[in-house]
Structures are given as structure tokens and as C-alpha cells.
Amino acid sequence: MRTRLLIIILAGVLALVGTAAVLAYARHANERAIAGLKTEQVIAAKEAIPPRTSLAEARRDGYLTTETLPVNSVPTEALTSTAGLGAFVFNAAVQPAQLLLRPMLVPATQSTAANVLPIPAGMIAVTAEMCVGESLAGYLTPGSEVMLYATVPLSTKVTVQRTCQTSHDAVPPDSASTSVILPKVLVLSVTQAQTSAQGTSSVDSAVANSVVDPASSSSSSLSSGAVAVTFAVRPGTEADQLITAIQVDMPYLALISPPTH
């Protein structure tokens, strides 16, 4: 009788110990699962970021986004904040959806990245210097899509001259024709020309109803204040048409759409 009672008590103790062990295991497993689900917000590239872009510019232009990742999968050098790093620049191009890591950013003076243009595959870059009016009066920005027009002389006695001092209204209406040369062109960059030593005014285009020496006309340099616009075009016909419009005709831009970012 006493032996049976001891067996019953021992069985009860073992049952309690087993139950406690199962509960403890379940509790620890649940804690491990919860720890694995803990997340952290990190900064990533929403779209491709060109080299030498500052973090402040990337934030301003909408290049950045945030991603929520499990804590145990976040790299130790991943950026979780941009505080204090706005003036730092990316030392290399950053691809879309790529996490930003602290070593990607360096002081601008230490950047070794080349100042390269984001030229789309299969295309080339061509630069034209234009006046403010021809280049959309300051509304043109990298990433814009534009329509390129060109005014072409209709007579050998009419020669295109580049000067901001001549009003387009002075051109006889029957001496030139304007038409679309390229219906859609991507703008890669827009920069202001440096001031020349003579401090001359910005350059425009006009058609003069007189004969001008083609050599002196084509070789005349564009003065300060001109806007240098770099386009992405396909080699061949597109590039030929654009360069002809720049060198021979009178180019003019119309904005189709601003940058999407």
C-alpha cells in the first residue's frame, strides 16, 4: 500500500516537472520567434542615385525611401537616419532598392567618383548652348523630356546668326521655317555657362536677312549666361539632326514633361 502511494506521488511529481518543462520550452520558443520579428527602419534608394550626389540632394529630390526589415537581417552599417550626413556625397552610383550603408558616403572633397552623366544604354550625350528663352527660361531640369524645334532659313541669302541682341520679331516671316526636329528628347543635365572675361551678355539666336560668312558665323563662341543643355540621343539620325540644329539652324525647346522624381 505504501509502495503504491509512493508510485502515485512520484508520477504526479514527474507530471508536474514535465508540464513545467514543456511550458518553459514553449515560452522560450515564443520569445525567440518574437525576437525574430522585431523590425527596424532603414534607408534605401528609391531609384538610381548618381555618384557625387549629396545625401541632402538625394532626400530633396525623392531618391530615398525607407524599408522595414527584421533586426537580425539589417547590416551593421546600414543607415537608419540622415541626421548630420546631409553634406556627404555618394562615392559611387547607387542602384534602386539598394540599402544605404555608411561607407557609401564620403565628404565631397574626398570623393573619387567621376563626374559622369547617367546616359541610357544605347544612347550618346550631345551638348548645346542655348539662351534662356530657348531653353525654357529656367524650367528645364535634368530628367525633363522636351520637343526640339528648329528654325531653318529658306533662302541662301538668309543666314542664322547667334545673338541675343536681335529680336525674333525682326525676322521676316517668309525668310525661315520652323518645324519639329525631334519629337521627344531626354535632358541629362543643365548648367550655366561660366562668365567670360569680356562679361558679354547671354547668347540667343536670330535670323538675319543678310549674307554672313558661314565660317565666322559657325565659329563664333557663345558668351556668358548661356545655358548648356546636354541631351541623350541615339547615334545616327537623331544625333545628326540634333547637331545640325545646333550648328546650322536655330534650335528651340518645348517642355513635354518634367522629371518624374
Number of helices: 4
Shape: rod-shaped
- Helix-strand topology string: HEHEEEEEEEEHEHE
Number of strands: 11
Main sheet characteristics: 5 strands, antiparallel
Alpha-carbon Rg, integer: 33 Å
Strand content: 25-35%
- Give the structural class: alpha+beta
pLDDT < 50 runs, ≥5 residues: 194-224
**What do the pLDDT scores average to?**
74
Distance between the termini: 87 Å
In the residues, how many domains can be counted? 2
Protein architecture, described:
The protein has 261 residues and is of the alpha+beta class. It has two domains: 39-110, Antifreeze-like/N-acetylneuraminic acid synthase C-terminal domain (Type Iii Antifreeze Protein Isoform Hplc 12, Alpha-Beta Complex), CATH 3.90.1210; 124-257, no CATH class. 23% of the residues lie in helices and 28% in strands. The chain contains four helices and eleven strands. It has helices spanning 2-37, 55-60, 214-219, 237-247; strands at 39-45, 64-70, 89-90, 105-106, 124-130, 145-153, 159-161, 176-192, 206-208, 227-233, 250-257. The strands form four sheets. The protein has a five-stranded antiparallel beta sheet with strand order 5-10-8-6-11, with helices on one face. It has a two-stranded antiparallel sheet with strand order 1-2. The radius of gyration is 33 Å and the shape is rod-shaped. The model is unreliable at 194-224 (pLDDT under 50).
